[in-house]
Design goal:
With about 160 residues, the protein is of the alpha+beta class. The protein has a single domain (about 20-155), classed as Protein Transport Mog1p, Chain A, CATH 3.40.1000. Helices cover about 30% and strands about 35% of the residues. The protein has helices at about 1-20, 35-45, 90-110; strands at about 25, 30, 50, 60-65, 70-75, 80-90, 115-120, 125-130, 135-140, 145-155. The strands form two sheets. An eight-stranded antiparallel sheet has the order 3-4-5-6-10-9-8-7, with helices on one face. A hairpin with a 2-residue loop joins β5 and β6 (about 80-90). The radius of gyration is 19 Å and the shape is globular. It starts with a helix and ends in a 5-residue tail after the last strand.
């Protein structure tokens, strides 16, 4: 009987630990870290703050020669709220292919299917929900091909 109770207690402890919310990760960086630490980590990866387009107190715009996107980091105080990558591409076909690749990669990484409310050729949206937030991949091919990847932290309403 004691062994049965011990097994039950161990099982309950494992279930309790596994049900904890995992923080949203942006390319290996936890989005629960303080804003300045997050920005410093991105600067260490070779990004540069675009001061002409950044808004002090709400948003940083970062660029790098090593990537094909501009990054927007939105925050309130020392809490990150969202990170968005804006891609520019030369053709609609290249953005369609990149959207599909991002969607497939996130599907494998998160182990879940996205909610896809729009799946046309020129406008596609894939919404992923995680314990810590939302990831949205949006394609809008009109006159200028645009592709956005957005990581948004869940906020606790009090």
């Amino acid at each position: 009987m004691k062994k049965l109770l011990l097994v039950f207690a161990v099982f309950a402890a494992i279930c309790a630990c596994s049900s904890e919310d995992k923080p949203l990760q942006y390319r290996g960086l936890s989005m629960t870290m303080p804003t300045q630490q997050f920005i410093d980590s991105l600067l260490a990866r070779g990004f540069v703050i675009d001061t002409a387009h950044s808004d002090s107190g709400q948003m940083y715009v970062l660029t790098s020669d090593a990537v094909t996107y501009k990054m927007l980091v939105a925050y309130k105080g020392q809490q990150l709220t969202a990170v968005q990558e804006n891609y520019t591409a030369s053709s609609n076909d290249s953005t369609r292919q990149l959207w599909q690749q991002m969607r497939d990669d996130l599907e494998k990484e998160l182990g879940t299917w996205p909610n896809c409310p729009k799946l046309g050729d020129d406008h596609k949206v894939a919404n992923f929900e995680t314990d810590g937030g939302f990831i949205v991949v949006t394609l809008k091919n009109t006159y200028t091909p645009t592709l956005q990847l957005r990581y948004e932290v869940k906020t606790s309403e009090k």
